[in-house]
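Section 5.1 Outputs to date
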Amino acid sequence: MADAARAAILPYFRQSNLETQNKHQSGFDPVTAADRAAESAMRDVLSLHRPEDGIWGEEFGESTGDSGRTWVLDPIDGTRGFISGTPTWGVLIALTEGEGPVLGLIDQPYIGERFVGVGGVAHATGPAGEIPLRTRSNPSLDQAILFTTFPEVGTKEEAAAFRAVSDRVKLTRYGMDCYAYALLAAGQVDLVIEAGLNAYDIQAPIAVIEAAGGLVTDWQGGPAHHGGRVLAAANADIHAAAVEILSRF
C-alpha cells in the first residue's frame, strides 16, 4: 500500500499547476488530486489482497468488513506542507483490531524514509539503510525538544496548555506534521503535543511510537486512538511531567 501511494503521489509533488480545494467553509483544510489518488491506490491494493477487511480513509470514508480488522488510512497527512513543497508530510497506514492500532507505518515518499512499528518492534528504512527505532531516555522536561504542527494548537485553552509545557522545555519547533511523530520514534525529540486530531491522523503514529518504546495518550493520560488532544512522549518520565501540566487545563 505504501509503495502504491508513493507512486500515486510523487508525480504531483512540487508541481506548480497542482490544483487545491478547500474541504471546509471555515478555515483552510486543503485536499488535492494527490490525496485522492493515493487513497484510491491503497484501497485498490486492499481490494485485491484483503477484501474482507474494513477501511477507514480520510478522503473516501468508512467501508465495513467482516474480518474484525480495519485499515485506517491518511493518504497525505500534512497536505498544507505538501502544497508548500516541504517534505514533512507523509502517508499514514494503521491496522486496528478492536481497540487501537496493532500496526503502523509512516512513509515519507520524497525523502524515501519509512517508519514501521508492529509487535513491539520498530524500524526505519531509507537512505541510511534499515535501522532500529528507539525513543529517547531523557527524563528531564527542561532538556526536552517539543514539536507541534500549528502554533495556535487549537482553542485558546488548548493553546494556553501547550504554552505551559513549551515554557518549560529547551526547544519548541512547529510545522512538522506526521514527521514529528516519526522523529520521536527515531529518538530525535521528546514530545509532540497536538489537538483536534482525527483517528486517521494518529493511529499509525501510535503504533510506531509504542513499538519504539514511547507513549501516546490524550492530555489526561487516557487512550488517544480516536484523536482529539494528543500527547506523544519518548518515555514514561517525560510523559508524566507533560500530563501533569496539560491535565490542569
